[in-house]
Amino acid sequence: MQMASAIIDFAQVAQNGYVGLPDFMLPRFSIVPILVMVPFSFATIAEHIADMVILSDLCEEDFIKKPGLHRTLIGDGLATCFSGLIGAPATTTYSENVGVVILTKIHDAKVVMLAAVYATVLGFIVVFADIVYTIPTAIVGGVSFILYGMIAAVGIRSLVENQVDIGKTKNLVIVAVILVTGLGLRFGPIIDISFGNVDIPLDRLGIAIAAILGILLNVILPEEKEEVKEEVEQ
Q1: The whole model's pTM is what?
Q2: Are strands 198-201 and 192-195 parallel, antiparallel or unpaired?
Q3: Secondary structure of 14-68 in HEC code, one letter for each residue
Q4: Is residue 77 included in any domain, yes or no?
């Protein structure tokens, strides 16, 4: 009789040691990879702005004005620069964290800073990472359903609270293009754009392309005739 495999397996715990350091490396500058990363920056900027808007609604504080969107964007950029200098991956506001704030309803800055300190310390404890990796994929997937679903729901709520009329043709077209582009490119045919020795998978640029198209359409598409007429009369 064959025994079923355990859902949680602690066999790998502590095999890599208890405390460790990541593999730091010096950065290398090349114009092609730098230019290639520019489109990805639009995705992180769009994510950052959306997170600030959602957090402002949740906390009932206008973070766009105080401390100011320019300051939060600069902080995010400086963090990414520092991360790159030590060979680490780029940083972002991570919308998953916004989902955690939604679920816990804890948005005190002191709590967030304390959590950042804990995360930094635990990042050097290898055995802790091994324990985290024992969490079954199904559980992580279930949590992701809630987190990302809450983010989408709060985003829709923000549109409603700001009285964005989706019934208007211009707004409807913009929302439709953003949704289809942002979600659809990940499931479309695999298309790679090559720049020298660097290949960019188009499906990875879905959010960036959606953000750029949304901005361009908002500028290019004309307002409806009734709206223009009302503005002229006023």
Answers
A1: 0.70
A2: antiparallel
A3: CCCCCECCCCCCCCCCCHHHHHHHHHHHHHHHHHHHHHHHHHHHHHCCCCHHHHH
A4: yes
Backbone angle region of 191, left / alpha / beta, with phi > 0 → left and psi within -120 to 50 → alpha: beta
d(CA 210, CA 181): 5
Given this model, what pLDDT does residue 2 score?
47
Helical packing angle, 206-220 and 169-184, nearest 10°: 160
- Domain assignment present for residue 227? The answer is no
Instruction: Determine the Cα–Cα distance for residues 185 and 188; give it in Å rounded to an integer.
Output: 5
123 in a structural domain = yes
Place of tokens 């223009």: 228
The residues, ordered by sequence, that sit 6+ positions from 221 with a Cβ below 8 Å of its Cβ are 170, 173, 174
**Span 87-139, pLDDT tens digits:** 777 777 777 788 788 778 888 888 888 988 998 888 888 888 888 888 888 88
Range of the domain at 68: 12-136
Count of domains in the chain? 1
Question: What residues of the chain score a pLDDT lower than 70?
Answer: 1-6, 14, 188-204, 225-234
